[in-house]
Amino acid sequence: EVQLVESGGGLVQPGGSLRLSCVGSEFAFSEYAMSWFRQAPGKGLERVSAISPRGVSSTYADSVKDRFTISRDNAKSTLYLEMNNLKPEDTAKYYCAKYPGASYNALAYDTRGQGTQVTVSS
Q1: Where are the strands (E) in the chain, listed by range?
Q2: pLDDT score for 25
Q3: CA separation for the pair 111, 120 (Å, rounded)
Q4: Region of residue 115 (left: phi > 0; alpha: psi -120 to 50; beta: else)
Q5: What pLDDT score was predicted for residue 106?
Q6: Do the beta carbons of residue 56 and residue 3 sit within 8 Å?
Q7: Which of 67, 77, 100, 119 could form a Cys-Cys staple with 29, CB 3.0–4.6 A?
């Protein structure tokens, strides 16, 4: 069974940083596009960032551009999200997700992890 397990969330002050990790198992991690989504209380799911299988290309939501960086280590089957200059509006549950192929322009992901909570507050 394909599994994605996120970690690294927590409570951080505005302006602080966090690094999220997502370990994938039971699939050929290096062959699939991956992404990070988030969902704030009372709001819909928002795609934060996505990355191609080899990490050559990536995309970001305007709300996180120049603050967040997505990366992956295929040898470790791990996806990362480096988050800097965090703002209260970044507070959400963050999920990593796998796309069904090599394109992150696919209509939908096919697997999502359980998520990790990020809270930005003073």
Answers
A1: 3-7, 10-12, 18-25, 34-39, 45-51, 58-60, 68-73, 78-83, 92-98, 111-112, 116-120
A2: 96
A3: 27
A4: left
A5: 82
A6: no
A7: 77
Residue 66 structure tokens: 């120049």
**Tokens 């397990």 — which residue?**
5
Amino acid at 66: D
Residue 28, token pair as written in the block:
């050929």
Q: Give the chain's length.
A: 122
- Spatial CA neighbour of 85 closest among 61, 58, 66, 62: 66
CB of 92 closer than 8 Å to CB of 64: no
Residue at token pair 């192929």: 101
The string of pLDDT tens digits covering residues 32-61 is 999 999 999 999 999 999 999 999 999 999
- d(CA 29, CA 16) in angstroms, rounded, equals 30
